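Sharing a chain and its predicted structure for anyone who wants a worked example. Both blocks are below, sequence first, tokens second.
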Amino acid sequence: MIFSMFFSQKKIFVFSSLFLFLFETCVIAQTSSKPNIVFIMIDDLGYGDIGCYGSMVNRTPNIDHLAKKGARFTDYHANGPMCSPTRAALMTGRYQYRYGRKFESALNGSLDGPDNGLPAEAYTLAEALKDAGYATGMYGKWHLGYKPPLLPFDQGFQDFIGLGYGDGDHFTHVDRVGNSDWWHNDTLKPETGYSVDLITNHSIDFIRKNKSHPFFLYVSHLAIHFPWQGPNDPPHRIQGKNYSKEKWGIIPDRKNVAPHIKAMVESVDESVGKIIGALRQEGLEKNTLVIFTSDNGGYINYSSGGFENISSNGPFRGQKGDIYEGGHRVPFIAYWPGKIKEGVTKTDLLMTMDMYPSFISLAEEKIHDSLKLDGMNILPVFFNNRKVEDRAVCWKTENNKAIRKGKWKVDIIENKAPELYDLESDPGETKDIAAKYPEIVNQLLKQYPAWEKDVTANYTQIN
């Protein structure tokens, strides 16, 4: 009798516990129904710096795995050939020039002077996703404002640890003018450790803390930006000393930077493996879109510093800072097991500014017309094997311009006649065929002035 009563009570306890477990599981599943987004941006990574894009030097098995099990894009472009322009386009979904002439190049600024960054009134991607119910975290390089109130914590990220400026020593996190540049939200909070490792660890912590509801994680590595330091190289900068004239770090042989770059690239690859591993361990991998890309092309050489053979932009002409393809055509991999077809290579012309409308659409939110986005929703390219609609896209730096539509691209280099390239047959821009097809040059050049007038309308109001 006593045994029967005990057994009945035990069954009730077991069934009630099981019911509670299933109920909690359902609640978690409901709150996690929107997919997570992990956006991994590497700094100055060239098109040819990783294995799945042709590198025979750098070992990148984790990144290559993403390409093997996801979609690899061969015609993806950073919105600018330098850091800040591309990051502004990512955060706003618009051509960065709409926020002033300063976004034709990398932003300059100082902790001691007036801040210079993305205007506070810009409705950022992080703010839009936070309003859609996402937890938002960013770890690494910002380069859209150097201090409050223009840091990520002020622009929609609920947690931020990293650099405001973005050219700090990879160990001491001291910037080029000798300031400590490692923040936690809106407070300077120095932290020891190699930048790749710190950014990775904080990113994994964020994943684990937010695993029960949707999140947007922006992993913004400072690597492989100078000063070129692998994880086993020595620290270089100390606080209070100006490094404007020796910003490159400790490189014993300026003709042989490759070993330092290799160490940095492979450290980034390890980071990717750890982040994907954390998603897998937490059961989140099949509900997470992972994007891997770069903010601009790599340095091939830097003559004023005496450095050569720094990076690889594959078959493309030019390097960081150029409007030739090597300045802005970069790796782009989209990975989502069970959602994105494995092992495909796509040739669609995509831009950084396309991330904003795509991520908002993924969050099942309506894109308000008032945002006036320039980017387009490219999710159908990821999931439905559709081609991106034909459009003209443009680049503009302080001295040079370019316009691209379809396979045709016109490069307008300072003090030179417009150059025309057929990127389908000549992706390396080796044969200028402007004289052969003057009508195509004229057609593209006619479109450029209206675009430039539109996107630079704020140049007189915003510095």
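Comments welcome. Residues 1-31 have pLDDT under 50 and may be disordered.
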